[in-house]
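Minutes, project check-in
Item: structure for the 297-residue chain
Input as provided by the requester:
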Amino acid sequence: MRKDSKITGLEFRLQVHRGDGAVRVARLPRPLLIAVAALLPTCVVLAVAAVSLAAQYRGVRAELAAAEAGYQGSRYLYDQLNDELAQVRSLNDRLQVVADNRPPSINSQFFGIGGSSSHPRVKRAPLARRLDDLNRAAGVTAAEVGRQKQGFVELTRLLENRQEEMAAHPSIWPVRGWIASPFGRRVDPYTHRWKLHEGVDIAGRFGTPVVASADGAVASVDRDPAGYGRFVLLNHGATVETLYGHLAQVIVQPGAAVRRGDVIAYMGSSGRSTGPHVHYEVRVAGVHHDPLDYMLD
């Protein structure tokens, strides 16, 4: 079999001579041949461009993966800073309560700590903007942590200079247990009416030791069958008092001096009580304060 080809004026002709003498002729019009020849370089360029774009795409994906990893790392550090800031703020507030004998202000208690809710654009914004926003937020948070730590250092120094006075300020749990009823308005378990609960109820096992929450003197040991049951009232100097109610047994006498942590009684269920617990109050100048603000340990 033999092949011959030639270009005539209007077409490209390919002749195939077979062994049996037959001849097959394939014709390509000249315009089609010219079009194919013209498109061939374009196809080559497109193929090269496709290879280049594929390489660029892989590079961009790698850069995005690296940027996302960087964002996640920054987010983790930012969350850590927020956690640290929350802890420092909480400790500062509670130490301030002990130092000044007053509960922390509403602003300090409910000041925003941060996190995703304080930066609603984080999830919706492009990655670059998310990183910028996060870095700015982390910078602000780090600065706030620094300020809070400095305040903590200064407050600690102040407390060290006032150790004797501070020993007379309530600062520990009076008994081991759990909070059965917090300070504030609640439904009275006997009358089923709303009433101010002037302390906290700490439930636990009958006979658990009850300790003085600060240095002071026993102001009163008494019994109130319709209310506190057996109770102890401690005076901590100035205008601070603590009360411990529903006791099973009292082991101190009026006028006795006590130190923080001394056992003064044992948990019971005397008076108006539905089970073993200690009703604990903190009073400053006759005003009831939330004891949880003074229970630091």
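Outcome recorded: Residues 101-124 have pLDDT under 50 and may be disordered.
No further action items on this chain.
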